[in-house]
């Protein structure tokens, strides 16, 4: 089976990596820009990852990424890519944060709702309203984005993935 991946940001590169892990070998990856691509959302020194999302499906995906996928990637590349640093997420009780709270509870994520009084003393740099819900996400981490992308590119090339930077895909026929 021949597989084409369109987009060579962190998601496209990780998709190629995951396919290799599952035994696929005929993989071609197209990137409209160069590497690093300054216009890509994954460009830059760092990004964050977390489990707090408004969908329990996505929370579960992040749990798998944090517990399985990132450790496998770090082992294969021989370097630390995630730097744990808990995060907080907050907002009015009647806002989107309520969906986040329900989703993390449903998925059993390591995210805890903490009282605003406790949050104010623990995180004095933030101003919480008594009406806020504050979620403390133990799984949050800083991703070494640039290091991840360069490591993946080197690994994928060594594994025989066909990489095509500065190649715009305008249509797919099938």
Overall description:
The strands form 3 sheets. The chain has a 3-stranded parallel sheet, with helices on one face. It has about 170 residues and is of the alpha/beta class. The chain is elongated and about 55 Å long. It has 5 helices and 9 strands; from the N terminus they run E-H-E-E-H-E-E-H-E-H-E-E-H-E. The model has no long low-confidence stretch (mean pLDDT about 95). It folds into 2 domains: about 1-45 and about 145-174, FAD/NAD(P)-binding domain, CATH 3.50.50.60; about 50-140, D-Amino Acid Oxidase, subunit A, domain 2 (D-Amino Acid Oxidase, Chain A, domain 2, 2-Layer Sandwich), CATH 3.30.9.10. It is about 40% helix and about 20% strand.
Q: What oligomeric state do the depicted chains represent?
A: single chain
CATH A-level architecture of the largest domain:
2-Layer Sandwich
Rounded radius of gyration (Å): 19 Å
User: What does the main sheet amount to?
Assistant: 3 strands, parallel
Structural class: alpha/beta
- In terms of per-residue confidence, which ranges show pLDDT below 50 for 5 or more consecutive residues? none
Strand percentage lies at 15-25%
Secondary-structure element string: EHEEHEEHEHEEHE
| Strand ordering within the main sheet | 1-2-9
Number of domains: 2
Number of strands: 9
Question: Mean pLDDT score, rounded?
Answer: 94
- The best one-word shape is elongated
Question: What CATH first level of the largest domain would be assigned?
Answer: Alpha Beta
**Which fold name corresponds to the CATH topology of the largest domain?**
D-Amino Acid Oxidase, Chain A, domain 2
Question: Span from first to last CA?
Answer: 13 Å
| Helical stretch tally | 5
At the fourth level of CATH, the homologous superfamily of the largest domain is D-Amino Acid Oxidase, subunit A, domain 2
What is the helix content?
25-40%
